[in-house]
Design goal:
84% of the residues lie in helices and 0% in strands. With 122 residues, the protein is mostly helical. The chain has one domain.
């Protein structure tokens, strides 16, 4: 039987497989790094969009809070005006009463008698 030395051939094949493995490993590492970079940029953009939305919501909230304060102030002002109107209506309604009372007092007095002092008590 002939003796063939296969050790150099096996060593070359092992070296070739090792090189292919390292190339594939390097390619996968580059692909993984690229994938991570793409995912990182995607997440950064999503965060930026969310922050922009949050700023928009904050500004809208500030505007609505201002409007709510204005509405509250207007409600208070309205109540004050309604109270004033009721007071004025009451005074105008009672305005003629004093004139009527004084006229009746004057008619009830005999001729030549005068009032020197008139007080109204409740």
């Amino acid at each position: 039987m002939a003796r063939i030395n296969l050790l150099p051939w096996r060593a070359l094949l092992r070296e070739k497989r090792s090189r292919v493995f390292l190339i594939v490993l390097l390619a996968l590492a580059v692909a993984a790094a690229g994938g991570l970079l793409v995912i990182d940029r995607f997440i950064d953009r999503a965060v930026e969009r969310q922050l922009a939305r949050n700023d928009l919501i904050r500004s809208a909230t500030v505007q609505l809070d201002g409007r709510a304060r204005q509405i509250d102030q207007l409600k208070v002002r309205r109540e004050q005006l309604l109270e004033r109107m009721q007071t004025i209506e009451t005074l105008q309604g009672n305005r003629s009463d004093s004139g009527i009372i004084l006229e009746q007092l004057a008619r009830s007095l005999p001729v030549g008698v005068y009032f020197t002092d008139v007080k109204m008590t409740e």
